[in-house]
Design goal:
binds zinc ion; mainly alpha; two-stranded antiparallel ribbon
Length: 356
């Protein structure tokens, strides 16, 4: 865009107009996000949360998304006449989106419950203030000033590195020191980064189902190699490989074959040790690659969320569905509730939703 033809006056006027429009659009966006949140429309589009929709779907940075969502939350918590006032202040630039978002963060961290009137009074105090002045105000009135301090920060510093800033409490420092002592024979003076890597690797090896599955596959391969020798296989291992193809390295393909093969159920019935419910659930998680498989049929977007996974019965248990591999699918918490809502209705499921 070439603006050389504009006079200085025109350039100033045009810029003011654009900024005014931009602010109004931002306020309008807050209301639209409010309505999308209320209707939980982001779930239908394959997003696990409003934040996920704003960052991934609308392509806002995490910080920009948080500012908008928090400002939206503050708006909806205020009485209608105050909402109008906040809207006006945002539109005219009397208060910044950042300060409105900071006010909401402050209210969320406070132990004290603020009435809508108290929130209104607080809002009037942040009008016209800079970000720094707002932070000072929050410190001066907070019931727990320690909580207001930003405790953690992460910043990308190279193509492969991120700088982390955390505040470690005494207990964590003691744990780090003890871990250093216990592993001194391997590394006499590990850095904090090395200690955290060691601790996270250890924990993930214990609780990450994907890693456990890999280990099982490795063990299975070893057993299969041994089986080629003229030895008798351990009975349990042999049965497991017959019963439960999901435990083998090519499980996904095998599972698909099993689900289509009409002889498969007969084989399972004939066996005295059918797979346990826990092993079926593990197989469902592995088949769905440890992520929510909810798909928006209009856009084709798959949720793919890896947090707080749950198993959903396609044919609900309450309606006679069984915990078979074919009847299970992986869902994040939000999409599992959506599926339940579709079956049992909104009013029944309303109690399960958290207040957002
Ligand atoms: Zn999901």
């Amino acid at each position: 865009m070439d603006l050389y033809h504009l006079s200085d006056q025109e350039l100033w006027a045009k810029t003011d107009e654009i900024v005014s429009q931009e602010r109004k659009h931002t306020t309008e966006l807050l209301w639209h996000l409010r309505e999308i949140s209320k209707r939980k429309l982001y779930l239908d589009r394959g997003f696990s949360s409003l934040y996920n929709y704003v960052t991934v779907g609308l392509k806002y940075t995490p910080a920009s998304a948080m500012r908008r969502i928090k400002a939206m939350k503050l708006l909806r918590a205020l009485p209608e006449k105050v909402q109008k006032k906040v809207e006006e202040s945002l539109n005219t630039g009397k208060v910044s989106l950042s300060n409105v978002s900071s006010l909401q963060s402050f209210l969320e961290k406070e132990k004290k419950i603020y009435t809508p009137e108290a929130k209104q009074e607080l809002f009037s105090k942040i009008e016209g203030k800079s970000q720094e002045e707002c932070q000072k105000l929050f410190f001066s009135i907070s019931t727990d000033p320690e909580k207001i301090l930003p405790k953690e920060k992460s910043r990308v510093v190279s193509a492969t590195e991120t700088e982390l800033k955390i505040i470690a409490e005494e207990k964590l420092m003691q744990n780090i020191q003890r871990l250093k002592e216990l592993t001194a024979h391997k590394n006499s003076n590990p850095s904090y980064a090395e200690v955290f890597e060691m601790a996270t690797e250890f924990m993930l090896n214990k609780i990450d189902p994907e890693r456990n599955q890999e280990k099982k596959s490795e063990r299975k391969s070893k057993v299969q190699i041994q089986a080629r020798e003229p030895q008798v296989l351990p009975v349990q291992e042999n049965k497991a490989s017959q019963n439960f193809a999901a435990e083998s390295p090519n499980s996904r393909n095998q599972n698909e074959i099993n689900s289509k093969n009409t002889n498969a159920p007969q084989k399972a019935e004939a066996n005295s040790n059918p797979p346990s419910e826990a092993s079926i659930k593990r197989a469902a998680l592995k088949r769905d690659q440890y992520r929510c498989t909810f798909k928006d049929l209009i856009t084709g977007k798959i949720c793919g969320c890896k947090y707080g996974l749950e198993l959903d019965h396609i044919h609900p248990v309450a309606l006679g569905g069984k915990s078979t591999l074919d009847n299970l699918r992986v869902r994040c918490r939000a999409h599992n509730l959506l599926e339940a809502e579709r079956v049992f209705g909104k009013s029944v499921m309303q109690n399960y939703y958290k207040n957002e």
